[in-house]
Design goal:
Length: 576
């Protein structure tokens, strides 16, 4: 009997790998890992399925990122003069400072455990991690990788001449040239590019504006989430519950438990009134809720129409102890009658392919500009379920934008890490934080005399490149223009390359340690162990491949678990 128990998980993993490609296309039969862009401030963009360095990949089509954008494996999120926040299923969060590019290299799941491997291509990002049992979380930033095994907050910086990590809370393990270096709260590690022996560990610099902003966001989100999850059986999925608590109210509904309705909407409000539509090759037409709360109600659970109240959202059946639930591109059922296409809010008791329960409560017409008002249903038999509407049904409402420019920043010579003290200035800004003087200074003044001429030449070239870029401009078309049919989406000209330091070859993220895989294989409770505290996601990291080697994992294909190791080149940053 024991041998059979050990065999079944292995067989399950093989079936998962063999059948994943077929299941990804069917969003209602499997939970592919999709995380959420939970905050957008200023200019934020994203690219889908980038290969290698996304800043050098001419094939990467960039689009304007919006609040509640679903992010899957292979996506890249970039900020210009803006900031962004990403919320993961278990409450982990990633925060992007200005002029930062973050690649979601591996988002996979196995036996209820989440594997997250990120690549910081440029800039500064901070991470709040609270791994559950079987989870694995790592970030690679230019010269080394960092993995978090317990509840931790750390900041990583990837600059032209080196990388650094600052630990704010908890502890992390830095993987450098096949060696593990443990870092604890208040410590900072830096490594200059191309100098493997230059590693320095010292006291972390004082928090700057970005660190303080992150701290406030973590505190607010944690408090709201703890208050919100009490209304649903959701030990294994917490993303978005904090916003439901803040922007709406829960009410008991007989037969369905606690249901939710947003503040400030009238009786005639419909679930699809506020948001954007976009087409995803895997899932088809997807809806992005335009309100801060617009994540959970549009991808999990279903809707009920209550007389005298209107539409309310029910999490019924989505967040049981056996898993994180089934992700849906939209909580709606597509229907068709003759040449008319409509969408009906999903009911918790809907059966795939069958007439939707909410059909009599409301069919909302679909046109090329999106979803419009309610259609009166005179004969329910005339409306048939449309499993996957064509791509030409509507117009993609996410604007195409130019690729983000590479931003030049350097570390302060001889001072190790200065990431959390770097000021955000212009494209060629060298304003840095001097920890001795405890103020922002011009970093160029601290350089040696023999480098002055080189810096002057670089600044002159950068200024010329900036002047050239000013003449190109960017064509930005808002979702409102698209919906009104007043504009045609165009791909603007990409600004000419700036004269900055050439990009460094980013090493591939570390492979997942064997200890995590074994632990997941014998996690017979499936997702039931998600509520556990700081997990044991490979405490030593010794079982992984060296981050300095050229071996990577075959995580490039969407949905791959990232467990099998194959040969790949580290020069492009992402093995293929």
């Amino acid at each position: 009997m024991t041998s059979l128990k050990r065999l079944f998980p292995t067989v399950g993993v093989l079936l998962l790998i063999a059948g994943f490609g077929a299941r990804v296309a069917d969003a209602d039969t499997s939970h592919a890992r999709i995380v959420r862009l939970s905050l957008v401030q200023g200019d934020v963009r994203f690219a889908r399925d980038a290969k290698g360095d996304p800043l050098n990949d001419a094939r990467s089509g960039w689009e304007g990122a919006v609040l509640n954008l679903p992010i899957r494996q292979g996506y890249v999120v970039a900020t210009d003069a803006g900031r962004a926040e990403v919320e993961f299923e278990n409450g982990a969060m990633a925060f992007l400072a200005e002029n930062t590019v973050l690649e979601f290299y591996d988002l996979s799941s196995e036996d209820g455990g989440f594997t997250t491997r990120l690549v910081l291509r440029q800039g500064s990002a901070e991470f709040y991690v609270q791994p559950g049992r079987g989870d694995y979380f790592s970030v690679t930033g230019g010269d080394f990788s960092v993995q978090a095994e317990t509840r931790t907050t750390f900041r990583m910086n990837n600059f032209d001449d080196g990388s650094s990590v600052n630990v704010t809370q908890g502890r992390v393990t830095a993987l450098i040239n096949g060696k593990n270096s443990a870092l604890h709260k208040g410590q900072s590690l830096s490594l200059r590019a191309g100098e493997p022996d230059s590693m320095a560990v010292e006291q972390a610099p004082a928090a700057d504006d970005f660190d303080q902003w992150v701290s406030g966001r973590i505190e607010t989100a944690s408090a709201a989430t703890n208050a919100g999850v009490q209304y649903a059986n959701s030990n294994n999925y917490t993303s978005g519950f904090g916003d439901l608590y803040t922007y709406g109210a829960w009410m008991p509904v007989a037969g369905y438990g606690n249901c939710w309705r947003p503040f400030g909407v009238g009786f005639g409000w419909s679930p699809f009134d506020y948001g954007s539509w976009y087409y995803d090759p895997f899932f088809g037409w997807s809806f992005i809720g335009g309100q801060q709360w617009g994540w959970l109600p549009y991808h999990y659970g279903g809707w009920l129409f209550r007389p005298g109240v209107g539409w309310v959202w029910s999490p019924t059946g989505s967040f049981g102890s056996g898993g994180v639930g089934r992700y849906k591109p939209v909580t709606g059922v597509w229907v068709k009658s003759g040449g008319a296409v409509g969408i009906v809010p999903t009911h918790p008791l809907d059966v795939k392919g069958k007439t939707p329960v909410n059909l009599s409560a409301g069919v909302f017409a679909v046109t090329t500009r999106g979803v419009s008002g309610r259609v009166t249903v005179e004969d329910a038999a005339k409306w048939k379920v449309e499993n996957k509407p064509s791509r030409e049904l509507m117009q993609n409402q996410l604007a195409e934008v130019a690729a983000p420019a590479r931003f030049s920043r350097t570390m302060v010579a001889g001072r190790g890490t200065v990431g959390s003290g770097t000021a955000t200035g212009g494209r060629e800004s060298a304003i840095v934080y001097d920890r001795t003087e405890r103020k922002f200074v011009n970093g160029n003044a601290a350089q040696s005399a023999e480098r002055s001429a080189v810096e002057k030449s670089e600044n002159t070239s950068a200024a010329q490149g900036q002047a050239n870029a000013a003449g190109t401009g960017r064509v930005r078309i808002s979702p409102e223009q698209n919906r009104n049919g007043n504009a045609t989406v165009q791909t603007p000209a990409v600004p000419p390359a700036r004269s900055v330091s050439p990009p460094r070859a980013t090493l591939p993220p570390p492979s997942v340690p064997r200890s995590v895989t074994v632990q997941r294989s014998f996690n017979e409770g499936g997702g039931s162990g998600r509520s556990g505290g700081g997990g044991s996601a490979g405490s030593s990291g010794s079982a992984r491949s060296s981050s300095s080697s050229s071996s990577g994992t075959s995580a490039a294909s969407s949905g791959s678990s990232g467990r099998s190791t194959s040969s790949g080149s580290s020069g492009g940053g992402r093995p293929h």
